Amino acid sequence: MRAVVSHRALLVVLFAVLAVLPVVANQYTLFVGNLLMLYMILALGLNLLVGFAGQLAFANAAMYGIGAYGAALLQVRLGLSYWLAAPCGAVLAMAIGTLLAFPALRLSGIYLALATLAFAQFTQWVLLHWNSVTFGAGGFPVPQPEFSALGMSPDRGIYYVSWVVTVVLLAFAWRVVRSRVGRAFVAMRDREMAAQALGVGLLRYKAMAFALSGFYAGTAGALYPAVLAYVSPEGFDLFQMVLHKAMIVVGGMGSIAGSVIGASLLVYLLEVLRQFKATQEIVFGALLLAFVLFQPRGLVDFLKRSVPGWSEPLHYASDSESAFDVAVADELVTGSRGGADR
Amino acid sequence: MLVLSYLLVTGITTGALYALVALGIVVVYKATEVVNLAHGELFMMGGFLAYTLHVMVKLPYVPSVLLAVAGSFAIGILTDRVAFRPLMKEGLVSVLLATIGISFILKGVARVLWGGKGDYLAFPPLVSPEPMRIGNVMIMSQQLVVLLAALAVMLVFAAFFKTTRAGKFMQATASNPKAAALVGIHVSRVYMYTFGVGAAVAGASAVLMAPLTLLYPDIGFPLFIKGFAAAVLGGLTSVPGAIIGGLLVGILEQLAAGFIGTAIQDVSAFIVIMFALIFLPTGILGMRGTRKI
């Protein structure tokens, strides 16, 4: 069958539109476009961890916050330039993300979820109460980096920086997923014990998944103060956590294109509902619930079925296939069919 | 000495409430191996229901409490029907994400109905706020009422499990769902009632807590985390463990607040969870060797 729209073509068009946006758009649209790219990075990172590696962690918003506060505080407190502070913020988030992998090795399922949720709460607390460093609940303004040498306003300059970073990280995620690492992630997600039996080192790949996702969230965070010129704890609260989760569930868990699609749709909704906090909570909560219930593989699954030529590597296998795989894996691992029933 | 006794009394009172929250988490976990992430929001809804009935509709206290508990029970059952029953076979990730979705829907609904962020509703106290002295110990009469009521809820809870048919069905299902199904217990109905009972306990504890704190839509999550800390400390599968865990978390938190700083109160739960998961993975009263980590 001839390809009508491939996921690749869609992404190319999307990023081409984003690239020319500053030429035609007003300041507000530019800001939303920039925000969209930050959320794409966040969704990509979270999807690598949750959708591909199968680690249900809730610390993504915390990593985002650590990246943002790291980059902003290094500038404001230590007077570093943004170009030095931003990578430091991203690396800091990656380091803390990697540390989270160690409890993750001992904990799984519910315990991992709750431990990371508690960690996210702890990060919020630090941002709120460590006044002497973080300026407390009110937040603080951060100077935007200068682009006058290039003859650009700061808003436009940082927009292009975000664009380049997003494209690079998107391409990188793509490479990761198609590499040995991506296959190890998926094997770990689908059946940890079988993956280990096949020689996938769990510590190594879990740490890698947490590090990658921490780095992605931290990079989005490091761009945040340059885009908003202001940082406050509220930007990294539980609502963000649900927002990121909803993005990957709506777009499609275990799909690179899905992360981008989910982020795009939800940022649009977020802007439409910006004035109404309660409505946002209800809408995003309901979206998450509805997709988990009725379209658990997200919009990409729908696209895959209805758009000829839409194919993406390393999706979930179709239901019958994966059920068969699991049965076979159980047989291999335990020596009896269905014996690994939990 | 007076300070210490005051801190201990306050710690025991809040600890008893954490224990009730933990109780709801443990009951649901024991039966279903799932933690309802909307548990804190069920608590919050229970509190707001009681507020609506008692303060806004001006019903007397006891009927409004009973109705609020019944309302929580209904929301709990709804959670089971919407998020657990259809997703049980899909696995833990789906169930957890669905309950997170529900928790945000409830939070948003509460914000629409009972005011925006930063609006705190005061629940009228049951008895005079005058402190009284028992021997050398200063105690707020309100705290005493709450403590006794929490104790009563725990006793009712224990009696329910020990004496009623429904309670025994739940115990049977929790210990072995397949065997329970074989002897004719309608397992998925038991799951439904388990969610309902867990939510009802949350609602009851919300009603008790409301006069001590204030009600606001975001109250659920911090309490859920504290209740979970208590449950994990107690072993996550043990009802007495949940109560001991709750009391411990409450007392530790008050002592830390009194001797280190009040801000520390909010992170005590995180520290307890991390400590329990790393050093005490089976909890105080959890069954050894059965935890799947």
Number of helices of chain B: 11
Average of pLDDT of chain A: 83
CATH class type of chain A: Mainly Alpha
Radius of gyration of chain B using CA atoms only? 19 Å
CATH top level of chain B is Mainly Alpha
Question: Total domains of chain B, how many?
Answer: 1
Helix and strand pattern of chain B: HHHHEEHHHHHHH
Total number of strands of chain A:
2
Structural class of chain B: mainly alpha
Largest sheet of chain B: 2 strands, antiparallel
Indicate the CATH architecture of chain A.
Orthogonal Bundle
Low-confidence segments of chain B, given as residue ranges, are 288-293
Distance between the termini of chain A: 42 Å
CATH architecture of chain B: Orthogonal Bundle
- Seen as an oligomer or otherwise, the chain set is heterodimer
With helices defined by DSSP (H or I, 4 residues minimum), what is the helix count of chain A?
15
Overall body shape of chain B = globular
Helix content of chain B: over 70%
H/E element sequence of chain A: HHHHHHEHHHHEHHHHH
Give the helix proportion of chain A (percent range). over 70%
How would you describe the overall organization of this protein?
The complex is a heterodimer of chains A (about 350) and B (about 290). Chain A has about 350 residues and is mainly alpha-helical. Chain A has one domain: ABC transporter involved in vitamin B12 uptake, BtuC (Orthogonal Bundle), CATH 1.10.3470. Chain A is built from 15 helices and two strands. In chain A, strands 1-2 form a two-stranded antiparallel sheet. In chain A, α1 (about 5-25) runs antiparallel to α7 (about 155-180), α2 (about 25-50) crosses α8 (about 180-190) and α4 (about 80-105) runs antiparallel to α10. The radius of gyration of chain A is 20 Å and the shape is globular. Residues about 315-325 and about 330-340 of chain A have low confidence and may be disordered. By secondary structure, chain B is mainly α. Chain B contains eleven helices and two strands, in the order ααααββααααααα. In chain B, strands 1-2 form a two-stranded antiparallel ribbon. In chain B, a hairpin with a 2-residue loop joins β1 (about 130-135) and β2. Chain B starts with a helix and ends in a 14-residue tail after the last helix. Residues about 290-293 of chain B have low confidence and may be disordered. At the A-B interface, α5, α11 and α13 of A face α4, α9 and α11 of B.
